[in-house]
Amino acid sequence: MNLAALAGDVPVLLPYLPYVLAAFGVCAAIMPVLPVPAKADSAYGRVWAVINLLAHNYRNATNAKAPK
After folding, report:
1. How open is the CA angle 41-60-24, to the nearest 5 degrees?
2. pTM of the entire structure?
3. Of the candidates 61, 35, 29, which has an alpha carbon nearest to the alpha carbon of residue 48?
C-alpha cells in the first residue's frame, strides 16, 4: 500500500477517533481497581491483558504482580 492510498483513508477514520480515545481512557480509569488475575491463561486473565493493553499500561501497576 502506498502513502497516497493511506492518506486517503485518514479522513474516514477521524470521526471515530474520539470514541477510540474514550475507550482508552475508560480502560486506564478502571485498570488500577481491577485485581491481578491468578493465571494469565484464564478467561479473566485474557480480559485483564486486553484492558491492560488498551489502557497503555505497559509496566502494569508497580504495586501489583503480573499474572503467571
Report:
1. 90
2. 0.67
3. 35
